[in-house]
Specification:
heterodimer; A: 516 residues; alpha/beta; two-stranded antiparallel sheet; 7% strand; B: alpha/beta; Defensin A-like; Rossmann fold; 2 domains; three-stranded antiparallel beta sheet; 7 helices
């Protein structure tokens, strides 16, 4: 551990404030559901196909229920009623529900209602057991082929075509990558449905679909066996379909997901209530599936200045951690995000970057953490950029980052060439090998620049957390405290998909995931 | 220099040695055959004394090469035709002063990453206070009134807001280039600008990692800015273009760093 910098009591205090900050949000989460949470419930029951025109059955069914004004009783309830009407398949269930005149389904007796719920609860338990069985298969493979020591080297593929992605992912794994991220098609986060099937066209990335997840995981399983080293796969549980993506990822045995409690609000202008509710259910699924989440604090310092806004990263990490813990995630699943983004034209940036990364390691000793490379100040001089990336590699090993996204020397120009990825992996491998254990050899002086800067940043993070507690998280976001982006509680996309739960709301999966 | 020939070659460590370095990947496993293929590939590019300095297994079926060779290409530098610089590039204070003195009001600039593109990195670098590579963004200039509308802004909305603010210049950033979406979106922007009568009236600029001045002109923009552009490059261009439109600078005035 590079340093205390701040007392344990102060760190515990920050954690305590963060849990108070999120408390009011949990009132909202408890009382509401969203159309995407309800779609996820249907997916958990096995409704994964698309209907006419490629529209997912889950969308057809929840849209119909929402239009009839009855979705707030829970999609699980209506799924149960469709089964009771004799639905033989998910498509049949949708058709039966769709055929019912709005609100004309006769109420059941209390006894029938009770039986129906018990029956569907059993079905939900069986579905969760099947999901657990699949996760166990993934974990067995992980045990059979252990991963390289951390930092796990994370690289991105983004061809738009899942089959080309597979070729690039296998090449990256062969060159030393530990984690493959398939970047999503531009603006998928704003789609209020999950596209269906294998896709070969995307813009700036490849659509996240359950089938694409399956194809890539299958290829990486094969590659893991060949290399005798488990290769992890990650995708993006963000936007308007956080929980549905979390389900698809869990089912298809992904290892990680980008999943942030506030990212969608700030950087995709998704409605605040929608995001808070969706993130909770998505994280409950990640908790069950042993998925490591990656949070997005690194994004704050690509919009705001990395030196001036360093404390916002720390404050947000405490908040993200509090949300995650409330959703059942454990420390080893918290890939809290941060990055090497201070303007390299300043003096002493290596000291400043070390200070920030050491402070984060000190505050979250048991979390893997996810370290992002420089992007904002990358130059088109690829030789300089390569040297710049290597410094981030050094900070990553020095501060024992669990997950390190590797910078690409051609970042300022184009999506990485295959050779760029190779060069980045080779140099990161060298630095990690060369400097492993450096943190145990050098003690950071408590009266020096690194420690003083860490104390200063921590102090400002405490002030921001205190402000969030006093004024509320909603107000703090409204004032642009995170990432210099201002959002209002009723602004943004997707608010129309938020519903207050009816008193007889039924969601057996939420009960199971919450351990009831 | 005019009239006098001035031959140049690439400079490695001696005048006229013609040495250049390049790196590339071939989709074959590393082997002696692969190295020979790389050598022949570079010979076909016209290089002499090709040295395959590094051949590395980038993956099972891909080899990454670093190659040196001599290019027997000589250019007459005096024949390179780039408009002569009349005006040197102005720094932050000088440019503010130029606006104050000659435009005599704040220059209004709106920018966004339009269409489906979610990447604000380009537009942020140019407009945001902080700027890029130590070069201040337009928001920092007291004589610019700069608005950054962010990403995923429909072209129509950017144009509408530009009309509301009586913008002198509009910056369109395009980062994602798959299937040439940046070109399609750029064309669509120009169509909307024409429909609103802004073409020829408002300065229309395109920027992005795969954008150059020629492409931007082809699409109907006044200028294009590619990778490595600093905010001060864009600021200088806008002020000169505006002064030309106001008739306060000659049409054929050229300045340091102008898009070409």
């Amino acid at each position: 551990m590079p340093g205390p910098f701040v007392d344990d009591a102060r760190v515990a205090q920050a954690r305590g404030i963060a849990s108070q900050v999120i408390e009011p949000v949990f009132d909202l989460i408890r009382r509401h559901t969203t159309i995407s949470v309800e779609r996820t419930v249907l997916r958990l029951f096995g409704m994964s196909d698309a209907g006419p025109g490629g529209i997912p059955l889950t969308n057809l069914m929840t849209d119909r229920l929402k239009a009839a004004g009855v979705l707030n009783r829970g999609a699980a309830y209506w799924y149960a009623r469709a089964l009771q009407l004799g639905a033989a398949s998910p498509l049949d269930a949708v058709e039966r529900i769709a055929a019912l005149p709005a609100g004309k389904l006769a109420p059941l007796s209390a006894e029938m209602e009770g039986n129906l719920r018990a029956e569907v609860r059993r079905e939900a338990e069986a579905a969760v057991d099947e999901l657990r069985r699949r996760i166990d298969e993934r974990d067995a493979l992980r045990r059979e082929y252990p991963m390289s020591p951390a930092p796990h080297r994370y690289v991105i593929v983004a061809t738009g075509n899942i089959y080309d992605d597979v070729d690039q992912a296998r090449a990256a794994a062969q060159a030393g990558a530990d984690i493959i991220a398939v970047i999503r098609s531009t603006a998928q986060s704003l789609l209020d449905y999950v596209p269906h099937g294998a896709t070969s066209e995307g813009y700036g990335g490849t659509y996240a679909t359950q089938e694409n997840f399956r194809i890539m995981r299958e290829a990486l399983d094969a590659e893991s066996r060949r290399l005798k080293r488990y290769i992890q796969l990650t995708n993006y549980s963000s936007g308007l379909c956080m929980a549905e993506i979390a389900f698809a990822a869990a089912w298809e045995k992904l290892d990680m997901l980008l999943n942030d409690a506030m990212y969608g609000i700030l950087f995709r202008d998704i409605n605040m209530r929608r995001t808070f509710i969706d993130q909770y259910f998505s994280r409950r699924i990640c908790a069950l599936a042993g998925i490591i989440i990656n949070t997005g604090e690194d994004n704050y310092i690509t919009t705001a200045d990395a030196y001036d806004a360093a404390h916002t990263v720390i404050a947000s990490q405490f908040i993200n951690e509090a949300f995650a813990k409330r959703a059942g995630l454990q420390d080893w699943q918290l890939g809290l995000g941060h990055s090497y983004e201070i303007d390299p034209h300043r003096p002493e940036t290596l000291l400043l970057e070390l200070s920030q990364a050491m402070l984060i390691r000190r505050c979250f000793p048991d979390a893997p953490l996810k370290y992002m490379p420089p992007t904002k100040h990358k130059e088109t001089d690829i030789f300089f950029s390569h040297a710049y990336d290597v410094m981030a590699d050094l900070v990553a090993i020095w501060t024992r980052q669990g997950i390190q996204l590797l910078g690409m020397m051609t970042e300022a120009m184009h999506t990485p060439l295959l050779g760029d990825r190779y060069v980045a992996l080779k140099s990161a491998g060298y630095i990690h090998r060369a400097a492993r254990g450096i943190d145990e050899e050098f003690v950071v002086r408590e009266d020096g620049k690194i420690a003083n800067r860490a104390r200063f940043v921590f102090g400002k993070a405490m002030e921001l957390l205190e402000e969030c507690r006093q004024d509320g998280l909603v107000a703090a976001i409204g004032q642009g405290r995170f990432g210099d982006v201002k959002r209002s509680e009723t602004g943004g996309k997707g608010l129309e998909g938020v519903m207050e739960k009816s008193p007889d709301y039924f969601n057996p999966f939420l009960d199971i995931l919450e351990g009831r | 220099m005019a009239g006098e020939s001035h031959p140049i070659r690439a400079y490695g460590d001696r005048r006229d040695d013609g040495v250049i370095q390049l790196s590339f990947t071939l989709p074959v496993p590393l082997s002696d055959k692969a190295k020979e293929a790389a050598r022949q590939f570079c010979t076909r590019l016209g290089l002499l004394d090709v040295k395959v300095a590094a051949a590395e297994p980038a993956a099972d079926n891909y080899t990454f090469f670093v190659v040196y060779g001599r290019a027997d290409v000589s250019l007459d530098y005096s024949s390179i035709d780039v408009p002569e610089i009349v005006f040197r590039k102005l720094g932050f204070d000088e440019l503010n002063k130029l606006i104050e003195d000659r435009v005599a009001r704040r220059v209004v600039v709106l920018g966004a990453c339009t269409g489906t593109d979610t990447h604000t990195v380009g537009i942020d670098a140019i407009l945001n206070m902080k700027g890029y590579a130590g070069d201040y963004g337009l928001e920092r200039y007291p004589w610019f009134e700069a608005y950054n509308l962010g990403s995923q802004v429909p072209n129509e909305e950017l144009i509408r807001k530009a009309e509301e603010q009586k913008a002198d210049a509009i910056l369109v950033s395009q980062v994602v280039t798959q299937r040439d979406v940046h070109k399609d979106n750029g064309r669509q922007f120009i169509d909307v600008a024409k429909a609103h009568g802004l073409k020829g009236k408002t300065i229309l600029l395109l920027g992005g990692p795969r954008v150059d001045h020629k492409l931007a002109m082809e699409l109907g923009f006044d200028a294009g800015f590619g990778p490595g552009t600093k905010p001060s490059d864009v600021a200088n261009y806008i002020v000169h273009a505006l002064l030309k439109k106001m008739g306060k600078e000659p049409e054929d005035l050229h300045f340091e760093g102008e898009p070409a």
